[in-house]
Description:
The N and C termini lie far apart (30 Å). The chain has one domain. By secondary structure, it is of the alpha+beta class. The chain has helices at 2-7, 12-22; strands at 32-33, 58-62. The chain has 2 helices and 2 strands.
Amino acid sequence: MIDLAKDLDDDEDMIELAQIFAQQPRNSADKLLVPYCQLAPRNSELNGLFHCQFASSDFTRFSGDQTGNLPLGVQAVTPPGSCPAKTDGPVPDGVQLNTIVTEPRAQTG
């Protein structure tokens, strides 16, 4: 999505939507937390962004082999389930992140 935005004359709106989309919680059939990616993004516009978790997730364990329990380069996710676009906690179940946030990084101050 970022590559396409760059091909479209660096469309800022499309870049912001791609940044929000990257933070959308992932579904988990077992309701466990979805591990975080441990690879640096190809596009610098995604640096420091990671997905939120859904509110009904079991916040005591991650799905899979228990790797990826923290986003790349992050020491703690506080509060649990939050992400840079939604810093106050997890996303309500069944909600699309782009319907509750408008900025890829929460505005402070």
